[in-house]
Amino acid sequence: MTASGSYIPFSTRPDREPDHMLRHRGFRSPGLRLPTLALALLIGLATPVLAGPPAALIEEVEGDIAGAELMDYVAAGQVIKLGPGCSLVMSYMKSCRRETISGAGAVTVGAGESKVEGANLKTDVVNCDAAHAQAGARETSEVAATIVRGIGSDSPAMPQAIIYGASPIFEAKGSGTLVVERLDQPGDRQQIELSGRQYKGRFFDFAGTSHPLTPGGTYAASFGPAHIVFRVDPQAKAGPGPAVGRLIRMD
Q1: pTM, two decimal places
Q2: Enclosing domain of residue 60
C-alpha cells in the first residue's frame, strides 16, 4: 500500500529486476514500485515463525505494525499490535472473512475471525476456496497428476481449486520453472522462470504482468514436484484483488 492506499503489485524488488520481468514469453513490464513495508525485508527483518497452521493472510499494511508483515501467514493465538494511524487488511483462509483494522490497538488472530481491542474493525466476506487453502502440497500434487493423466476428449478435468481473480498469485518457493497450461483449450501455455527473487522468495503475482488467465478456463500448474489443477471463476477479473481469492499454494 502507498500512503494514499493504492495497491501496488508486491512481486517486485527495487534493487534488482523482479522475476515477473525476467522471462515470461518475452514480456517486460514497466517499472513497478515496492510496497512500503517490504523495504523491511531488504534490511534483514525475519518473518515470524508460525505457532500453528496458517489461519489468515496479511494482505495490506500501513504504518507501524508489530507481529506481522505484508503477505505473512498468521496463526490462531498470534497477537498483532498497531500504532496510531496504522491499518492492516487480513483475510481468513477458512472462513473467507476479510478484516480491515485501523487505529491503535491489538489484534488476536482466531481460527476464523479476530479479537480486536482498541482499534476499529470493518469486516466483509470475499470469494475464496477454503478447501484449497487447507490442502497440503503433497496431497494436491498427487491428485493433480492423476487428473492430468486421465484427461481425454470426453473426460473434462475436475479442478482441485477455484480462484476468483484472473491474475493468480502463485506461492512457489525458490527458483525453478513455473508452467501454467490450459487444459480445456490446448495451446494456451505460459512458462515463467523464477530465480527465487519472488516477493519474500515465494510469491509470484500475475497482477504484475500483462498475461491474465481466461475466466472460466481450467488450468494445470507445475513447479518442481508440485502440481495442481484449478479453475478460474467465470466472473473473475484481471488485475489486483483480494489475495486470498487469487492464491494458488504450491509451496
Answers
A1: 0.75
A2: 46-125
